[in-house]
Amino acid sequence: QAQLVESGGGSVQPGGSLRLSCAASGGDFSRYSMAWFRQAPGKERESVATISWRTGMKYLADSVKGRFTISRDNTKNAVYLQMNSLKIEDTAVYYCAAARSELNGQNYYRTSRYDYWGQGTQVTVSS
Length: 127
Prior knowledge:
Blueprint: E1 3-7, E2 10-12, E3 18-25, E4 33-39, E5 46-51, E6 58-60, E7 68-73, E8 78-83, E9 92-99, E10 116-117, E11 121-125
Parallel strand pairs: 2-11
Antiparallel strand pairs: 1-3, 3-8, 4-5, 4-9, 5-6, 7-8, 9-10, 9-11
């Protein structure tokens, strides 16, 4: 049974940084596209960052470009989200997701493309 477990969330002031980690187990996730989504209260879940497994292509939401970085370590079955220059509007529950397929610019943001989800980790940015 595949499982994704997020960690690294917390509270931070605007301008601060956090690094989220996602530990994957129950499969060879080197062949999975991995992603981070987030969901703020009253809003739909939205794509933050995706890294495809075959090409290593990275996709970032416009709202986080230049501030967030996604990376993966296949030797550890892990994916990371480095978040810098955090803003109040980044406050949300952040979810790790895995897709058993290569993703591209036309589908990486669709929640339906992902096969496994973590339970989420809360990120709160406030002064």
